[in-house]
Amino acid sequence: MQVEIKIDDSYNEPKVIILTASMTEEIHCLMQKLSENDLQIITGIKDGKITILEHNDLFNIYAGNGKVSAVTTSGEYILRIRLYEAEEKLNPSQFVRISNSEIINLKKVKSFDLNFTGTIYVELMNGTTTYVSRRYVKKIKKLLGM
């Protein structure tokens, strides 16, 4: 990727133009990073109280029983947003979807076990275990450099 910076006093604020032959994952991630002003806030409900959840404290976010839940270092919270909306608010270099119903924090993964046929077993640092669905195995392997 080529990067060019042009300094011109006539601009009041920075302007970014991306020239590309096609929309790639790299371009999409770049656009997301450039459009982020700050990390977006995710709030969760626990014991009737609404709490702002720190992204670095999240282990995983999953959908089940008609609800979306977030597991953090301080417990489990119910979210009032859909899973895809939570995914949009998270940093794509730190959080990855492993199934249609779950997103994990890569910084909270203890290990990946590829010995299971057709899927990947994931152990998080809080002791939680989960699986990468077959649909997402190729994506995770690529992410792991395999």
Notes on the protein architecture:
With 146 residues, the protein is of the alpha+beta class. It is built from 3 helices and 10 strands; from the N terminus they run αβββββαβββββα. It has a 7-stranded antiparallel beta sheet with strand order 2-1-5-4-3-7-6. Strands 8-9-10 form a 3-stranded antiparallel beta sheet. It is globular and about 55 Å long. The mean pLDDT is 89.
Characterize the overall form: globular
- End-to-end Cα distance, whole Å, is 23 Å
Q: Would you identify the regions where 5 or more consecutive residues have pLDDT less than 50?
A: none
Please write the string of helix (H) and strand (E) elements: HEEEEEHEEEEEH
- Overall pLDDT score: 89
Q: Summarize the biggest pleated sheet.
A: 7 strands, antiparallel
Instruction: Name the strands of the widest sheet in spatial order.
Output: 2-1-5-4-3-7-6
Total beta-strand segments: 10
What percent of residues are in strands?
A: 25-35%
> With helices defined by DSSP (H or I, 4 residues minimum), what is the helix count?
3
| Percent helix range | 10-25%
Radius of gyration, rounded?
A: 18 Å
